[in-house]
């Protein structure tokens, strides 16, 4: 069908009183459409344009080639070009446009940009009106002239190519992107058209048809089109308007785009292979996925970057059926090319997935280069996340060749004593590759396992937060498997000898830090099947579930974990250490729990396991009112006389002495012994000191205390001990005894008035006890009881002391009493 044409001539440059007008309008173009078209044809001269240009200057002025969609869904393709005017208006701007109704394709099913170099665009209104040659329908058949020279243009714009194609792709989306048009800054408007030509070839047809544009405007911010071209002098204004600006006539950009499809398309254009775009569209997948285009580019010998190669490998791994044998071979050859030196971990991972997809589908001769590449990277690149080939991937010469190259490197690294600091994933990968290549590592396994076992624990602690809770298995967060777990489990499943050596090494170190082993096993479910006893590992594996079930019942937890070992403490004493570490971790048991531990095995077993230290901690850390701690201390000193030494021994001896002071007959000299043991046990635990001082004070306040011990205590003038004595004397039991037992009151009077010059601590305390404790007690007595106290003081002391009591009882001030007592003692 014949398309309607429109001609329009603008006002003269600089003549504000003149108006543009339509000089010819084809059939079917309504007045409403003309009103919509006129703003599209507006033209403003660039800065510095001459008022009366020469013919050459006139031809050099930019032309606005425009493609727009109108409000009714119809489209318009037109060109606005400067033309020679009359003498009063030397430059006029003539627009020749073609109106395309809704649903009507362009002649020859062309794209709009293909008409920008049509020879039939008119610069003057034809004498016959708008019925002359159609610039769209008169295009020659075959590849459109617009594609001529695009290869050279793409190469010349290489630094900007990927970024511009990325923005043009986004601009061609079905929903017009927000933020205004993409602005292409070129010195020549024809180069803007070439950019659109590049996009028309690279984009799918439906995307290219949505890409409305003009090659020249001076008002990009007010344009409703998706792509506009501007001259360099208007670039700053476009940036100020917040538009996406590409200054292709300036220095190349520094930052590369993250659009992998655009980067791949740019490499295709720079390789002068635009036919690959159509070839890629014949492959399944998203039209803007980088994978299909990268695949056909690699198969055609186009060099790509690492991300693009990864996209190709990943796409082919998901659709191995989409490529024929020839393309598969070409892709493998391109991916494994020895000239590539910029491979990344993501590329190797994608190649690993591709190998897994092709393995079994293709001959081994096709996949062997992929397998060799993966194994070489696993050894030399340190990529521990690679999916390794199956063991039979290297059969025959290929396997022998790669083993001959990599084998010595693997053995040297495994033998290295630096294995303790080597990442776990690295050691696991080396062991798996060694088996894959059929290498004999039997002699290395004991040392490798010994170094690997503690490294597993350290790596697990570093990768996962330690859970909160009472033990190694916290309930606040679910256990998270470390990154190396899948590869480790595959290694243990593949190699029985490695599993045996590693489980044995873990079992040996478990007693040293069973909590760490339990946390590791909670995250990595190691296989315990087989004939190995592994008592410590079994206990560590049992602990998390037992803690969840039994909660804080540590006695029940202790028994359950010990049963999980499958061995008694008599046969394997170290299970005591493992169980204690799991149940109590870094805390001390209670005294009752310590008695349970002590009775669970012989002293020899506890000595071998080292758990006697936990028992000592339990005794020394017990509260001051836990009397069982004294009996536990006595038992520990008898059971471990050689092991318990130094400060701990003195502290336990002090606890044992407390028991004798309370219930037995301690050996003479115990008052001094309390002070001696206290000094040896420094820094002494506060509960132990409180218990010892309380026991000593209670014994010294007893009616039957030996006088020599009391004398030694008083003469020590130890402020802390005397303060404890003072506190004990002020307790209610002592006050009650003073009020009800005249003999006891007489004895305390004698003691508290004796030795007035031994030292300030005792003198001050004794005077305070007389005034604040004994006097209220005596005043509460009946006259008969007071007389009995006085008589007892005289009978056990002297007549002078009886008189002193009588005076004290009548005195109101302690100072007067003190002076009298001193005088009578001196006279006596």
Automatic annotation (TrEMBL):
<feature type="domain" description="GTPase-associated protein 1 N-terminal">
    <location>
        <begin position="3"/>
        <end position="128"/>
    </location>
</feature>
<dbReference type="InterPro" id="IPR045401">
    <property type="entry name" value="GAP1-M"/>
</dbReference>
<dbReference type="Pfam" id="PF20013">
    <property type="entry name" value="GAP1-N2"/>
</dbReference>
<dbReference type="Pfam" id="PF20052">
    <property type="entry name" value="GAP1-C"/>
</dbReference>
<feature type="domain" description="GTPase-associated protein 1 middle">
    <location>
        <begin position="151"/>
        <end position="242"/>
    </location>
</feature>
<feature type="region of interest" description="Disordered">
    <location>
        <begin position="459"/>
        <end position="480"/>
    </location>
</feature>
<feature type="domain" description="GTPase-associated protein 1-like C-terminal">
    <location>
        <begin position="269"/>
        <end position="805"/>
    </location>
</feature>
<protein>
    <submittedName>
        <fullName>GTPase-associated protein 1-related protein</fullName>
    </submittedName>
</protein>
<dbReference type="InterPro" id="IPR045402">
    <property type="entry name" value="GAP1-N2"/>
</dbReference>
<dbReference type="Pfam" id="PF20014">
    <property type="entry name" value="GAP1-M"/>
</dbReference>
<dbReference type="InterPro" id="IPR049532">
    <property type="entry name" value="GAP1-like_C"/>
</dbReference>
């Amino acid at each position: 069908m014949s398309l309607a044409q429109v001609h329009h001539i603008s006002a003269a440059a600089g003549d504000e009183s003149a108006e543009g007008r339509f000089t010819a309008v084809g059939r079917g173009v309504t007045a409403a459409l003309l009103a919509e078209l006129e703003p599209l044809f507006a033209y403003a001269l660039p800065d510095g344009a001459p008022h009366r240009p020469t013919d050459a200057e006139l031809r050099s002025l930019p032309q606005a080639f425009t493609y727009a969609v109108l409000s009714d869904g119809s489209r318009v393709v037109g060109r606005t070009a400067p033309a020679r005017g009359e003498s009063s208006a030397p430059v006029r701007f003539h627009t020749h446009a073609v109106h395309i109704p809704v649903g009507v394709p362009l002649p020859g099913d062309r794209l709009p940009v293909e008409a920008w170099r049509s020879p039939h665009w008119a610069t003057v209104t034809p004498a016959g009106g708008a019925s002359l040659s159609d610039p769209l329908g008169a295009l020659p058949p075959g590849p459109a002239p617009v594609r001529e020279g695009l290869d050279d243009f793409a190469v010349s714009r290489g630094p900007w190519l990927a970024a511009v194609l990325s923005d043009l792709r986004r601009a061609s989306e079905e929903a017009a992107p927000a933020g205004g048009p993409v602005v292409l800054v070129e010195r020549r408007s024809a180069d803007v058209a070439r950019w659109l030509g590049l996009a028309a070839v690279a984009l799918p047809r439906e995307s290219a048809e949505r890409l409305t544009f003009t090659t020249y405007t001076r008002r990009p911010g007010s344009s409703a089109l998706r792509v506009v071209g501007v001259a360099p002098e208007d670039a700053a204004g476009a940036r100020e308007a917040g538009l996406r600006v590409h200054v292709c006539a300036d220095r190349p950009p520094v930052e590369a785009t993250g659009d992998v499809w655009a980067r791949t398309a740019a490499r295709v254009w720079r390789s002068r292979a635009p036919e690959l775009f159509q070839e890629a569209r014949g492959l399944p997948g998203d039209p803007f996925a980088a994978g299909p285009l990268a695949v056909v580019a690699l198969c055609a010998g186009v060099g790509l970057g690492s991300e693009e190669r990864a996209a190709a490998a990943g796409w082919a791994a998901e659709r191995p059926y989409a490529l024929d044998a020839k393309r598969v071979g070409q892709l493998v050859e391109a991916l494994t090319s020895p000239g590539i030196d910029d491979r990344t971990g993501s590329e190797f991972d994608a190649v690993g997935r591709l190998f897994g997809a092709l393995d079994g589908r293709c001959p081994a001769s096709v996949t062997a280069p992929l397998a060799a590449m993966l194994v070489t990277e696993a050894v030399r690149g340190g990529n521990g996340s690679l999916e390794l080939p199956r063991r039979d991937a290297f059969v025959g010469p290929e396997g022998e060749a790669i083993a001959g190259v990599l084998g010595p490197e693997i053995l040297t690294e495994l033998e290295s004593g630096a294995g303790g600091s080597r990442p776990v994933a690295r050691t696991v990968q080396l062991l798996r590759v060694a088996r894959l290549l059929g290498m004999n590592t039997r002699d290395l396994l004991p040392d490798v396992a010994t170094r690997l076992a503690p490294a597993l624990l350290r790596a697990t602690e570093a990768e996962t937060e330690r859970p909160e809770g009472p033990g190694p298995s916290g309930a606040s967060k679910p256990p998270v498997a470390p990154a190396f777990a899948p590869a480790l489990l595959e290694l243990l499943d593949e190699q029985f000898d490695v599993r045996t050596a590693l489980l044995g090494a873990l079992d040996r170190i478990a007693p040293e830090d069973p909590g760490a082993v339990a946390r590791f096993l909670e995250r990595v479910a190691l296989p315990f099947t087989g004939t190995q006893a592994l008592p410590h590992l079994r206990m560590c594996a049992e602990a998390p579930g037992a803690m969840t079930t039994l909660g804080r019942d540590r006695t029940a937890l202790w028994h359950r974990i010990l049963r999980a070992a499958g061995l008694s403490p008599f046969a394997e004493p170290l299970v005591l250490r493992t169980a204690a570490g799991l149940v109590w971790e870094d805390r001390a048991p209670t005294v009752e729990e310590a008695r349970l531990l002590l009775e669970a095995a012989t002293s020899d077993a506890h000595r071998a396991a080292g758990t006697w230290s936990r028992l000592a901690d339990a005794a020394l850390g017990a509260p001051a009112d836990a009397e069982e701690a004294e009996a536990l201390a006595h038992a520990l000193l008898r059971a471990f006389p050689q092991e318990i030494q130094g400060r701990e021994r003195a502290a336990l001896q002090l606890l044992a002495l407390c028991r004798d002071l309370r219930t037995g007959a301690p050996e003479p000299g115990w008052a001094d012994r309390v002070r001696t043991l206290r000094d040896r046990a420094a820094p002494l635990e506060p509960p132990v000191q409180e218990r010892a001082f309380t026991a000593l004070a209670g014994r010294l306040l007893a009616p039957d205390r030996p006088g020599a011990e009391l004398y030694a205590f008083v003469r020590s003038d130890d402020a802390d001990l005397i303060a404890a004595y003072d506190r004990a004397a002020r307790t209610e039991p002592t006050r009650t005894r003073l009020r009800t037992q005249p003999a006891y009151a007489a004895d305390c009077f004698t003691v508290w008035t004796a030795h007035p010059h031994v030292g300030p601590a005792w003198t001050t305390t004794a005077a305070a006890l007389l005034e604040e404790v004994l006097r209220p007690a005596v005043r509460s007595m009946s006259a008969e009881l007071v007389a009995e106290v006085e008589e007892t003081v005289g009978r056990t002391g002297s007549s002078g002391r009886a008189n002193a009591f009588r005076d004290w009882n009548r005195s109101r001030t302690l100072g007067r009493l003190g002076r009298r007592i001193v005088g009578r003692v001196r006279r006596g």
